[in-house]
Design a protein that fits this description.
Layout: E1 5-8, H1 9-20, E2 28-32, E3 38-41, E4 61-63, H2 74-84, H3 89-95, H4 101-111, H5 115-136, E5 139-142
Parallel strand pairs: 1-5
Antiparallel strand pairs: 2-3, 2-4
Length: about 140
């Protein structure tokens, strides 16, 4: 049996955040299946890393999933809210009907003394999702 290629957790988190970033700059991230190295790709930014030729078409590279693909957006917020703030579900749903929802949500958590607990919950969910993604793709996660 062949040994899985190891991917550094912190590098993968950075790649995930780059791929998940909403805004005027589009970013994509890839993991090399043979080395475990991550690559950040953007048509809009001049990034320092040398990106391998044909990375987007090659079977040797996996696109790093974003928060939608890992189901770590609104559903994660409401999993936390349902568990910790069940009486505030309607209020939080109201936040997410307008722009700036995450800012209002985090301000609400701070007022309720739950902001650090949210960050831990979010980090644990991300690590678990990335570990699962690595397992599904024959990679091992190191550092987590």
């Amino acid at each position: 049996m062949s040994q899985s290629v190891a991917v550094d957790l912190q590098e993968l988190i950075l790649a995930y955040e780059f791929a998940s970033c909403d805004g005027p700059v589009e970013g994509r991230a890839y993991v090399c299946k043979t080395t475990g190295k991550t690559y950040l790709v953007s048509d809009d930014l001049g990034l320092d890393d040398e990106v391998p030729e044909g990375i987007e078409e090659s079977d040797d590279f996996l696109p790093v999933p974003d928060k939608r693909e890992l189901n770590l957006g609104h559903s994660l917020v409401f999993a936390f809210v349902n568990d910790k703030l069940a009486d505030d579900v309607d209020l939080v749903e109201g936040y997410f009907r307008r722009r700036g929802a995450y800012g209002r949500f985090k301000a609400h958590l701070e007022r309720r003394g739950l902001l650090n607990e949210w960050y831990k919950f979010e980090e644990d969910a991300l690590t678990s999702a990335l570990r699962g993604w690595c397992g599904e793709n024959g990679l091992a996660l190191k550092g987590g």
